[in-house]
From TrEMBL, chain A:
<dbReference type="GO" id="GO:0005737">
    <property type="term" value="C:cytoplasm"/>
</dbReference>
<comment type="similarity">
    <text>Belongs to the protein-tyrosine phosphatase family. Non-receptor class myotubularin subfamily.</text>
</comment>
<feature type="domain" description="Myotubularin phosphatase">
    <location>
        <begin position="124"/>
        <end position="448"/>
    </location>
</feature>
<dbReference type="GO" id="GO:0046856">
    <property type="term" value="P:phosphatidylinositol dephosphorylation"/>
</dbReference>
<dbReference type="InterPro" id="IPR029021">
    <property type="entry name" value="Prot-tyrosine_phosphatase-like"/>
</dbReference>
<protein>
    <submittedName>
        <fullName>Myotubularin-related protein 9-like isoform X3</fullName>
    </submittedName>
</protein>
<feature type="compositionally biased region" description="Polar residues">
    <location>
        <begin position="477"/>
        <end position="489"/>
    </location>
</feature>
<dbReference type="GO" id="GO:0010507">
    <property type="term" value="P:negative regulation of autophagy"/>
</dbReference>
<dbReference type="InterPro" id="IPR030564">
    <property type="entry name" value="Myotubularin"/>
</dbReference>
UniProtKB/TrEMBL annotation, chain B:
<dbReference type="InterPro" id="IPR030564">
    <property type="entry name" value="Myotubularin"/>
</dbReference>
<dbReference type="GO" id="GO:0046856">
    <property type="term" value="P:phosphatidylinositol dephosphorylation"/>
</dbReference>
<dbReference type="Pfam" id="PF06602">
    <property type="entry name" value="Myotub-related"/>
</dbReference>
<keyword id="KW-0378">Hydrolase</keyword>
<feature type="active site" description="Phosphocysteine intermediate">
    <location>
        <position position="340"/>
    </location>
</feature>
<feature type="domain" description="Myotubularin phosphatase">
    <location>
        <begin position="131"/>
        <end position="513"/>
    </location>
</feature>
<comment type="similarity">
    <text>Belongs to the protein-tyrosine phosphatase family. Non-receptor class myotubularin subfamily.</text>
</comment>
<dbReference type="InterPro" id="IPR048994">
    <property type="entry name" value="PH-GRAM_MTMR6-9"/>
</dbReference>
<dbReference type="GO" id="GO:0004438">
    <property type="term" value="F:phosphatidylinositol-3-phosphate phosphatase activity"/>
</dbReference>
Length: 489, 580
């Protein structure tokens, strides 16, 4: 195994400081291919302290006398300090961690070796196939169809094999539209809003360029969207960039839809009031802010996406399958010294927005803060394969589905539920419009101060909420109750 | 003079009034405005629920009449509980009439015009009198184990001869003579002699309070030195006593020139002297003004407004002082004597915060009420801990038309401190945020007698106990609304040890602005924001806090959200409901 070449020292004696509220740990420190281990020694408890090397964001070493100190800053914002006996040992361990934590290769990463008890490989990758959602929409509306034009990823390398498009547009037209959009990301359906019969679409920017090129098939596609929606429906193109940035993009070959070429559609660079219209969302590449906006919109509108299963499905469909480049964006986190320009906490931004929603509507989300924290942690470093690679195409090449475990199967185990679920959940059939007044937005302490605040008070509170909710269920089970607890925002 | 001014016939009714809502997508409601002798009531004309908005006239801080617009004549009310109501009336003449009436009614010139003197909840005389007896501060001293072999409760101040702003009963060391107490009082500003505020039964460490000494540069007072020595000796387990001056050192030194000042360590045996750096009432007042001005704009402006208001820095200073005292009592097992200038604002705040940290009793309904009890027997004046409120309730809260320089949000800050603690220890308090809000409302509503007058003597002179009702029975009745469903009981938490570390709140919420607008900053700038957010100062960040960053996470006491976060409030109520 090639890891052995990177491991310079097998082990050393060390003391680990984990933060202001935690007692230090002493024992034997050991670097393996994927982990940093601290074994407290035979006399103490057999509990191992374990850190996935992938989650190390930056490493600092200092030596003084015959001892050294390594400070590890992790992608989950934790800061760890290791006091190690021996200068050589310190330097060797630091070098080993440095090398192993920044391995680029996907197929040697830990998910390909992780074989937990109780889970069988390959059985859970069918938890949330987007095709299921697309088929349902196609069935309900009759205006949309599932296309396999991208079966070999030739139209768009960052889209999944199956996409959903207007029924009246054929695969050849899709191919032409794909050539007119950056990265081949032609407009596809993101969400069908049944109550108003309108749809949410996403794409990348059109390649109009300085010559103001047009593409007849692309125009037809958007025309077909309006024709398939409820009669008289209008369309809005929400460009997530500022008007000026969109204009500048034209110089580099990008741009925006020309008003005259897309009758029935209106372009905007600002948020919309509530009205029943079709929406196409895009920024530049259509893999970042675009997904952020479309997935948030669905959480606000769609009660199903606020359930545990629905939320997982949403992330699978609107982030993972939709081609958010997790590997590029989450390669490093806040502490990294180098700052590759592809790296950005877009997904964290989404999770924070969901947290704000959950705080404003404490009853309306089936999942709790624990779920959001888990998603944050796993998107940056995980034993599961779900967030590996940048697109479905890459995941197929690496055989992620057959050779790693799915995060969803890990999270859906019964033992995880008390941590992840919101005990106060009561299904809310309405749209949940959040307040975006500056006073209404708060710092997500549970994430940003997770390692600096003592955890007990909030853990105790969470337990108490569970207890109240469980007790209440018991009493409700014995006598019928009214449904007065439905939120009415 | 009767409360109803003879020149007006009530209620005044105005039809076709709009109440503007700041929320996007919400059309202004249309309804009627009723001006009664005590409240301004707005009733929506349509809608299933016919929403009603009640504003107590005493809550109104300012009334503003703007120039006429296409919608009509705007009338803006700003309330002391931070509500802002924006009405639009049809006719300029009517608007002016309402404006003039409100100006007159919202700030009566005499105590007798306050609502409390006309409020009649249809309860018998006996119930009213029992209401005043509901909370008995003397029994709290019993709970602390007083009197004991070191401390005695004396009614030496029964005629307010020692100190006019103290209650009749005070707790002083058993070993000193009345002459020493009187002698020391002559050496203290406003005669506020050192007396006991809280005794930590477990180790005999006491928190005492007083005002600044009239020491100037050289003056000494043997009686005062004797009294401090005696206080120190009530705790044989400790070799010294802290004397805490809650003011910034500079302010205290300036007072020296005026013949006041602070204790010189050399003149007293075994005292350790500390400054706490809490600003005075004028700084606090302008801080609150800035805080309120800064609300309701873009996230960036809101946060920089919040920071520049300094409000959180002040809250932090008060909490840090409280924590210092609590630790001195619990860990170092020493007595602490606390004062500021007159000993009725900052001193009250920090003594109250310290006792809430130390004693789980004050985190219950009964305990908080005792702490806030401004009345009779409370040995320590204002405050009985709390709040300066009692003492200076009338002045600090601006009930009467008077000197606006004396108004200061001392009590609001105290409630904010409790709120901060509730945020950090969600299971440690028997009551919830609504209870704090309700108390805050009643401090200004003047519906009950508790918060009228500036001290015990004032309240007796005004015959408050004979003519008005007490707020506590009223709140006790509504206890189910105010209960914290997460409360884990009296015994679970002993001494609270809150964090007052800072963190750079500002960058965070800029990253969040995407929530309000799909124009998302480009990915690089978001990464930078996140980097700044997570780069915390190494080690103890206290020095940094003083210079710039916000002291604590802050959601301005939800009071601010009265007018802002209607979703939140509703969903929160459902949450409480469901919790039962």
């Amino acid at each position: 195994m090639e890891f052995s070449e990177l491991i310079r020292t097998g082990q050393a004696q060390a003391e680990l400081l984990r933060g202001p509220e935690m007692p230090p740990l002493r024992g034997t420190l050991c670097v393996t291919g994927h982990h940093l281990l601290l074994s407290p020694g035979p006399q103490a408890t057999p509990d191992l302290w374990l850190l996935l090397l992938r989650s190390v964001d930056s490493i600092e070493k200092r030596v003084a006398g015959d001892a050294g100190t390594i400070t590890l800053r992790c992608k989950d914002l934790r800061v760890l300090q290791l006091d190690i006996e021996g200068v050589e040992a310190t330097l060797d361990i630091a070098r080993s961690i440095e090398a192993l934590s920044s391995l680029e290769s996907v197929i040697t990463s830990f998910p390909f070796f992780y074989r937990p008890k109780g889970l069988r490989l390959g059985e859970s990758w069918h938890f949330h196939p987007p095709e299921r959602y697309y088929k349902r929409v196609a069935r309900e509306t009759r205006a949309w169809r599932l296309s396999e034009a991208n079966e070999d990823f030739s139209l768009c390398p960052s889209y999944p094999r199956a996409v959903i498009v207007p029924r009246t547009v054929d695969d050849d037209a899709l191919a032409r539209s794909a050539r007119f959009r950056q990265g081949g990301r032609f407009p596809v359906l993101s969400y069908y809003h049944a109550p108003s019969g309108t749809v949410l679409l996403r794409s990348s920017q059109p390649l109009t360029g300085p010559q103001k090129r047009r593409c007849a098939e692309d125009e037809e596609l958007l025309q077909a969207v309006l024709a398939g929606a409820r009669p008289g429906a209008r369309g809005f193109i929400v460009d997530t960039r500022s008007a000026q940035a969109a204009k500048q993009a034209r110089m580099t070959g990008g741009g925006t839809e020309a008003k005259s070429a897309y009758p029935g559609w209106k372009r905007l660079h600002r948020p919309l009031e509530r009205e029943g219209a079709c929406i196409l969302v895009h920024g530049a590449e259509g893999t970042d802010s675009t997904l952020l906006v479309t997935s948030l919109a669905q959480l606000i509108l769609d009660p199903l996406s606020r359930t545990m299963a629905g939320f997982q499905e949403l992330i699978e469909r609107e982030w993972i399958q939709a081609g958010h480049p997790f590997q590029l964006r989450c390669a490093h986190s806040a502490f990294s010294h180098t700052r590759p320009k592809h790296e950005a906490p877009i997904f964290l931004l989404f999770l924070d927005c969901v947290w704000q929603l959950g705080r404003q509507f404490p009853l309306s989300l089936e999942f709790g803060e624990g779920m959001l924290l888990a998603l944050f942690d796993h998107s940056y470093a995980s034993p599961f394969g779900t967030f590996l690679c940048n697109s479905e195409k890459e995941r197929c090449l690496c055989e992620v589905r057959t050779r790693t475990h799915s995060l969803w199967s890990g999270l859906n185990q019964p033992k995880e539920q008390r941590k992840l679920r919101n005990p106060l959940y009561a299904p809310n059939p309405l749209a949940i419009w959040p307040s975006v007044e500056p006073q209404s937005l708060r710092l997500w302490q549970g994430l940003f101060l997770r390692w600096t605040h003592p955890p007990e008070p909030s853990e105790v509170a969470w337990e108490k909420v569970w207890q109240i909710a469980t007790d209440q269920e018991k009493t409700e089970g014995s006598q019928p109750t009214d449904s007065a607890s439905e939120p009415q925002p | 003079m009767s409360y109803l001014s003879s020149t007006h016939i009530y209620p005044i009714i105005v039809e076709n009034v709009k109440l503007l809502d700041r929320y996007v997508g919400k059309k202004p409601a249309n309804g009627s405005l009723y001006l009664t002798a005590t409240h301004l009531i707005y009733m929506e004309a349509s809608g299933a629920a016919r929403k009603e908005t009640w504003i107590a006239l005493h809550h109104i801080a300012t009334v503003e009449k703007l120039s006429i617009t296409s919608l009509g004549c705007p009338l803006i009310l700003r309330c002391k509980n931070f509500r802002v109501a924006h009405f639009v009336l049809e006719s300029d003449v009517v608007c002016h009439e309402v404006y003039i009436s409100l100006l007159k009614l919202s700030q009566p010139a005499l105590h007798e015009d306050l609502y409390a003197f006309s409020y009649n909840p249809k309860s018998s005389k006996e119930m009213r009198e029992n209401g005043w007896k509901l909370i008995d501060p003397i029994s709290d001293f019993g709970r602390m184990g007083l009197p004991n072999r070191y401390w005695t409760i004396t009614d030496a101040n029964r005629n307010y001869e020692i100190c006019s702003t103290y209650p009749p009963d005070i707790v002083v060391p058993k070993s000193v003579t009345l002459g020493t107490v009187v002698g020391s009082s002559k050496f203290r500003s406003k005669e506020r002699v050192p007396v006991l505020s809280y005794l930590y039964k477990e180790n005999n460490a006491a928190i005492c309070r007083c005002s600044q000494p009239l020491s100037g540069f050289y003056t000494r007072c043997i009686d005062d030195e004797l009294l401090l020595e005696a206080i120190s000796q009530t705790n044989p387990g400790s070799q010294f006593m802290y004397v805490v001056d809650t003011r910034p050192k500079l302010n205290a030194m300036a007072n020296r020139a005026a013949g006041k000042g602070y204790e010189k360590e050399d003149n007293y045996s075994n005292i350790r002297f500390r400054f706490m750096g809490i600003e005075n009432i004028h700084v606090m007042r302008s801080s609150l003004q800035k805080l309120l001005e800064g609300t309701g704009i873009s996230p960036g402006e809101f946060l920089s407004g919040l920071e520049s208001s300094g409000w959180l820095r002040h809250i932090k200073a008060i909490m840090d002082a409280g924590i210092f005292i609590a630790k001195a009592v619990k860990v170092e097992k020493t007595n602490v004597l606390v004062h500021c200038s007159d000993g009725w604002d900052r001193t009250a705040q920090v003594c109250s915060v310290a006792s809430i940290l130390l004693d789980p009793f004050y985190r219950t309904f009964k305990g908080l009420m005792v702490r806030e009890q401004p009345i009779p027997n409370s040995v320590i004046p204002d405050v009985n801990h709390c709040l300066s409120l009692p003492l200076f309730a009338s002045l600090r809260c601006g009930h009467l038309d008077g000197d606006s320089k004396e108004v200061s949000p001392i009590f609001t800050q105290f409630l904010d401190c409790i709120w901060q603690l509730m945020e950090q220890f969600p299971c440690a308090f028997e009551f919830n945020e609504n209870f704090l809000l309700e108390i805050h409302d009643h401090v200004f509503s003047c519906q009950f007698g508790n918060f009228l007058g500036n001290c015990q003597k004032d309240r007796e002179d005004l015959r408050i106990y004979e003519k008005t009702h007490s707020v506590w029975p009223f709140l006790v009745q509504r206890k189910p609304d105010f209960r914290n469903p997460l409360y884990k009981g009296f015994t679970v938490y002993g001494v609270l040890n809150p964090s007052t570390l800072s963190h750079p709140f500002l960058q965070q919420a800029q990253g969040l602005s995407c929530f309000a607008s799909p124009c998302i900053a480009d990915i690089i700038s978001i990464s930078l924001a996140m980097e700044i957010l997570t780069t915390r100062p190494p080690g103890n960040s206290l020095s940094l806090i003083g210079k710039s960053h916000l002291a604590m996470v802050y959601n301005p006491l939800n009071m601010l959200l009265h007018s802002v976060g209607y979703y939140i409030v509703e969903d929160f109520c459902i949450y409480i409901h469901k919790a039962y």
